[in-house]
Amino acid sequence: MEATITQVFSKEHSNCDKIFAQAENLVANKQWAEADSEFNKFYTAMEKHFTAEEEFLFSTFEERTGHTMGPTQVMRMEHQQMRQIFAQMQTSLAQQDDEQYLGLSETLLMLMQQHNMKEEQMLYPMIDQALANEIATIFERIRASA
User: Which residues contact 18 (CB under 8 A, 6 or more apart)?
Assistant: First the structure.
């Protein structure tokens, strides 16, 4: 049996969380070059994840269910909030401002935890159910776009 949306995307959350924690540790230790590199890995992984959700998962779910103003809209808004924090974090890295970075990182961590919980416990299972016959095709489309 092919993996579910919940399984694959929850694993991506976990992988992004690990990179995020590593970047935070590097900033805390003022290892700026390594922190910048690790943050860029985190940022790239998050953008890839957001793009897969927004362009493939959410859009297909909305087309099939007709729900365009529900949970997918909330998730997109939260993605935008996180993107704004990413930009501020990049600025604090460039300025080697560990206090600002770590404060932003604390805010982002809370936002990501709440966001991921909503996706993993509510939205992904809804998508798995609504798109059960299309999951393999969705994964193929995501892989082809990478």
Answer: none
| Domain definitions of the chain by residue range | 5-145
pLDDT digits (tens, 9 = 90+) for 20-43: 999 999 999 999 999 999 999 999
Which band of pLDDT confidence, cut at 50, 70 and 90, is reported for residue 67?
confident
Cβ-contact 27, 35 below 8 angstroms: yes
Burial 18-36 (b: 16+ CB within 10 A, else e): ebbebbbebbeeeeeeebb
Instruction: Assess contact for 33 and 85: CB atoms under 8 A.
Output: no
The architecture that CATH gives domain 5-145 is: Up-down Bundle (1.20)
Specify the residue for token string 């957001």.
50
Counting every residue written for the chain, the total comes to 146
Complete DSSP assignment for 11-59: HHHHHHHHHHHHHHHHHHTT-HHHHHHHHHHHHHHHHHHHHHIIIIIIH
